[in-house]
Design a protein that fits this description.
- The chain is 71% helix and 0% strand.
- It is mainly alpha-helical.
- Helix 10 (146-159) runs parallel beside helix 15 (259-288).
- The longest helix is centred in the C-terminal third of the chain and has 30 residues, at 259-288.
- The chain is globular and about 70 Å long.
Length: 351
């Protein structure tokens, strides 16, 4: 939310994807630091564990130097002078007239809406369809199997017969980082729904090939390369769409009033599903054996069909247009109570 509020309108999409890029870079650094000849050994593992405090402390200190969100200052606190000071710091320019005009319009629009609670998101007919779609997008991000690969990639590579599985795992982290960087540019060009569907379709076929490779490994030694290639491509397709995009779409589904509550419940759902996968995957893998990714392929296929039929395109559309798309997909003709334009989210420009 903070990045979305402080970023220039034309860069919100790219800067939002940088959030995902920072995450995958952290994963890659952790994988490298965890090598047994560095810190991942019996003598130094406690240092590796303790190092997680360093970025936490660093972030806490750097937050003192971060300017307050100008939208929060202007729209919520009605402090235009402080908002201008914050904008000048963020933009590096004394001319922030365009931003102030944009926020003034946003404030006028926000004044017509009441703050929406999490319960109201599910009880109000205007918000029920968007919040359910938003939660499904975050569920598929985790239940697609991506974190099963990250958490257990070394054991998966061992199962595939790779002699040095830890280095293959680091390779996955590198591919993950590269394709997230690529998505920074793709999200400015293509539609959210299109990229999401492309990513999900690619993940489905990769999960099939991954499973076939694991099943036939004992009969055909070269199947280990099929499984390994499928894992790399699976991660690549994930970062093209299902990785960063759900976070954008939740923000674009909702206007100023319900957006904070929607983002809160979406994040809660995302991390809850993450926890479930982390705790359960090893038991599922032990039960299913080499067939485990057929299960994920089925989940991905189901969510791909859901996306195709239920998820509207949001790129370049106002909140009113997105709400109309939801009504059309749900078969409803009832107009929303409030039609709030999303120009402040960059609806008139590529986000």
């Amino acid at each position: 939310m903070y990045v979305g509020e402080v970023a220039p309108t034309t860069l919100r999409g790219a800067m939002g994807t940088l959030h995902q890029l920072a995450i995958v870079m952290g994963i890659l650094i952790s994988q490298i630091a965890g090598l047994d000849f560095l810190l991942g050994n019996h003598e130094l593992w406690h240092i590796l564990l303790g190092l997680t405090a360093v970025p936490a402390v660093l972030q806490s200190l750097l937050l003192f130097f971060c300017p307050e969100s100008p939208r929060y200052l202007y729209i919520r606190l009605d402090e235009e002078a402080k908002a201008k000071i914050s904008l000048k710091r963020l933009r590096g320019s004394d001319d922030v007239t365009k931003d102030i005009i944009e926020m003034r319009k946003e404030k006028e629009e926000a004044s017509s809406e009441k703050k929406v609670s999490i319960i109201q998101l599910f009880t109000s007919s205007s918000y029920r369809q968007p919040i359910l779609v938003a939660l499904m997008l975050h569920m598929v991000q985790q239940f697609s199997g991506i974190n099963a690969i990250f958490y257990y990639s070394t054991s998966i590579f061992q199962m595939a017969g790779i002699s040095q599985p830890v280095y293959a795992t680091i390779g996955v982290g590198a591919v993950n980082t590269v394709f997230t960087a690529v998505s920074v540019f793709l999200v400015e060009k293509a539609g959210r729904r299109s990229l999401f569907l492309i990513g999900m379709s690619g993940m489905f076929f990769c999960a099939i090939f991954m499973s076939v490779g694991l099943v036939l490994l004992n009969k055909l030694a070269w199947m280990s390369y099929v499984s390994m290639s499928a894992i790399f491509l699976f991660v690549s397709f994930f970062e093209i769409g299902p990785g960063p995009i759900p976070w954008f779409m939740v923000a674009e589904f909702f206007s100023q009033g319900p957006r904070p509550a929607a983002l809160a419940i979406a994040a809660f759902t995302n991390w809850t599903c993450n926890f479930i996968i982390a705790m359960c995957f090893q038991y599922i893998a032990d039960f299913c054996g080499p067939y485990v990714f057929f299960l994920f392929a089925g989940v991905v296929l189901a969510f791909t069909l859901f996306t195709f039929f239920k998820v509207p395109e949001t790129k370049g559309k106002s909140f009113e247009e997105i709400a109309a798309e939801f009504r059309k997909k749900s078969g409803s003709t009832q107009a929303p109570k409030a039609a709030v334009e999303m120009e402040f989210l960059g609806a008139t420009e590529t986000v």
